[in-house]
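Researcher: Here's the sequence for the chain we discussed earlier.
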Amino acid sequence: MVDKALFSYLEEFVTPKRRDKFDEILNNRTKHFTVVLEDVYQMHNTSAVIRSCDVFGVQKAHAIEVQHKNVLDKEIAMGAQKWVDLQYHSNTEACIKALREQGYQIIATTPHNESCLVESFDVTKKSALFFGSERDGVSENVMQQADGFIKIPMVGFTESLNISVSAAIILQSITSKLRNSTINWQLTEEEKEEQRLIWMQKSIKSIDKILERYHSKQL
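Model: Thanks. This is the structure I predict for it:
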C-alpha cells in the first residue's frame, strides 16, 4: 500500500507539469509483457534493451546473471534505468519459476526453430520474452521449458540481429498490437500509485534529506 501522507508530502517537490507527465506515461505502461535478459555480456546491449522497454511501455525487466554481470551503461540507457524496474536473478531456473508463479508464459526468442513470426504472435497471454547471450542466444534450459518461440522474419544472408535491435523490433510490434486490442493490459490503479511514488523519489533532488525530514516529523 502507498503511504498517502508521504505521497502528498513529496508532491510538493514535483511540478504539476512533471506530475501530468507521470500520469500520461503510466497510462501507457504495461506488465502484460516483461523482458528477460539471460546472461547478456555487453553492458551496452542490456542498457539499450532497457531503453526500448521504456520507449515501448514495458514497466518491468529481468536480468539473469550466470557468468556475466548486467551492469547498465547510463549513457546508452539515456535515463531509462530510472523509469523501468530491473530485477536481477542468479539463475535461470529460479527466474522461470518466479515468472510462472506471476502468470507469465515463457517465450524464447530464437531464429533457429519453427518459431512464431513476430507479426503473428498471440498477445492475449501474459508473456515473458527471453533474450539470450550475444554469441549463443537463450540457453538450452530456456528452450526446453519455453511455452512458445518467437522470431523476426529475415530474408538476407545474416541469420540474426543484435540483441538490442531484436528486442526493439519485437517490443514495437507486440506492444502496438496489444494497444489495439481489447485486452486489459494497463497497470492497476494501485500499481500506478506505487509507481508514481517511486518516480517522484527518483525525480527529486536531495531526496534522502527530504525523506529524513519527513520521517522526523512523523515521530
